């Protein structure tokens, strides 16, 4: 639940019910009356028929937000907060081939097509509310990489890592962290290799990278805990593992913080 030092789960001031951490990379779910209007600064949030809504913070977010809930009668409740800052780990990966570090023109074109496909599915905002039930880890193995860490490949600084890496041999099972619908399966993206995307509703998606196989296809409904894929070493990797990433539309948040949210009643 929300850390009491940052934001109470039930605000005595505004009676706004939230679960999650007001922290860079955090995911927050909320509950209100279904006919209320909810905005986060100027962004209107989707409210389900059960009153569920969701939002998230990016890695370096320092914005001050005001969450506003307006009832049909005009009653307004507000909560103002700023995500707390985090320190991120630095990791160094050596031995990346020059072919991957400096892809040729053909590879760059292919990588651009991959990015376009991912951007397209991240624009989807379904009415699913599976996000509201919380998330579990897709694997029970050790974590070998964390969200937000700055990676250096062959000594060259690259973009921060936006996922959580789980150890695993090729073919090891990957489970759905929450129920949802399969939006994308591509077995051979240039950077991420076998890539699977599952929609949990309201713009919340799980992305599974470097897979060796998918056990589901686009359009399939999956249940939390269901085996959906197999660990691989495809794409830009130095060895087999699972890279699990999460998005709220284009906002990339921390899956480990997502697993801290709890269903609200």
Secondary structure tally: strands: 21
Major sheet details: 8 strands, antiparallel
Q: Write down the Rg.
A: 19 Å
Global mean pLDDT? 90
Q: Count every helix, treating DSSP H or I runs of 4 or more residues as helices.
A: 3
Helix and strand element order: EEEEEEEEHHEEEEEEEEEEEEEH
CATH fold-level assignment of the domain at 90-250: Glucose Permease (Domain IIA)
Poorly predicted runs are: 1-14
Quickly give the structural class.
Answer: mainly beta
The N- and C-terminal alpha carbons lie at a distance of: 13 Å
Strand content: 35-45%
The CATH H-level superfamily of the domain at 90-250 is Glucose Permease (Domain IIA)
Query: Under the CATH scheme, which class of the domain at 90-250?
Result: Mainly Beta
Shape: globular
Verbal overview:
- The chain has 265 residues and is mainly beta.
- The protein has a domain at 90-250: Glucose Permease (Domain IIA) (Distorted Sandwich).
- Helix content is 10%, strand content 39%.
- The strands form five sheets. Strands 9, 12, 14, 15, 16, 18, 20 and 21 form an eight-stranded antiparallel beta sheet that branches.
- The longest helix has 18 residues, at 105-122.
- It is globular and about 60 Å long.
Labels describing this entry:
Glucose Permease (Domain IIA); 3 helices; globular
């Amino acid at each position: 639940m929300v850390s009491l030092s940052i934001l109470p789960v039930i605000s005595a001031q505004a009676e706004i019910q939230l679960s999650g951490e007001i922290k860079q990379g955090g995911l927050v779910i909320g509950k209100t009356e279904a006919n209320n209007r909810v905005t986060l600064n100027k962004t209107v949030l989707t409210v389900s028929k059960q009153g569920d809504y969701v939002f998230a913070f990016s890695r370096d977010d320092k914005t001050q937000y005001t969450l506003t809930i307006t009832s049909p009668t005009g009653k307004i409740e507000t909560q103002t907060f700023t995500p707390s800052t985090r320190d991120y780990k630095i990791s160094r990966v050596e031995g990346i081939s020059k072919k991957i570090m400096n892809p040729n023109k053909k590879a760059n074109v292919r990588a651009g097509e991959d990015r376009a496909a991912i951007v397209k599915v991240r624009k989807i905002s379904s009415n699913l509310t599976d996000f509201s039930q919380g998330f579990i880890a897709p694997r029970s193995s050790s974590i070998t990489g964390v969200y937000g860490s700055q990676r250096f490949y062959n000594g060259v600084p690259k973009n921060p890592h936006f996922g959580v890496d789980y150890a695993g041999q090729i073919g090891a099972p990957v489970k759905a962290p929450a129920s949802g619908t399969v939006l994308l399966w591509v077995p051979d993206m240039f950077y991420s290799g076998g890539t699977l995307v599952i929609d949990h509703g309201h713009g919340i998606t799980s992305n599974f990278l470097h897979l060796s196989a998918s056990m589901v296809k686009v359009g399939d409904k999956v249940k939390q805990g269901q085996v959906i894929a197999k660990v691989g070493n495809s794409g830009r990797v130095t060895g087999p593992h699972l890279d699990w990433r999460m998005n709220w539309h284009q906002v990339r948040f921390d899956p480990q913080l997502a697993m801290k949210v709890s269903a609200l009643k």
